[in-house]
Amino acid sequence: MTRALYRSCLVALMILCGACSGAAQPVLSAADAWIREAPPGASAHAGYVTLRNNGNNDLVCDRVTGADFGAAELHRSVAEDGVMRMLRDQRIELAAGGTAELKPGSYHIMLFRAQRDLRSGDRSELTIHCGDQQVSASFEVRPT
């Protein structure tokens, strides 16, 4: 009986250790973050990223911050009467378990008043705020 009890405790300990060994997945994650390289002297840049809501509740992303820019806004491009227009939305709804792809011709981050010259290969840290959740990502500057 002692041997059986020992085995049972060992199995229970292995299961418990397995459950505790993985790090908790963050509620909000970011992937493929990049900024389109702008011509010298340009007043604005555009940033793109794929956001994923790994949580059980819907999120509303409504703010972007970063030290390399004086201001950042959430925008989207839309076609109206055959003409592309850019609208300042300032919020992106992100369903529980869902993703939002910020990409050229769609939702994107407008970045104003660059605090330094950004060239292809440079990186800039931006933080996307979604209610009480936020995610920081290193955005790579890519050529146009």
Textual characterization of the structure:
This protein has 144 residues and is mostly beta strands. The protein has a single domain, classed as Immunoglobulin-like. Helices cover 14% and strands 53% of the residues. The chain contains 1 helix and 10 strands, in the order αββββββββββ. Strands 1, 2, 3, 4, 5, 6, 7, 8, 9 and 10 form a 10-stranded mixed β-sheet that branches. A hairpin with a 2-residue loop joins β9 (123-130) and β10. The radius of gyration is 21 Å and the shape is globular. Residues 9-21 have low confidence and may be disordered.
Give the CATH superfamily.
PCu(A)C copper chaperone
Point out poorly predicted stretches: 9-21
Q: Strand portion, in percent? A: over 45%
> In terms of structural class, how would the helical and strand content be classed?
mainly beta
Instruction: Tell me the domain tally.
Output: 1
Annotation field: number of helices: 1
Structural Rg: 21 Å
Give the helix level as a range of percent.
Answer: 10-25%
The general outline is: globular
Order of helices and strands: HEEEEEEEEEE
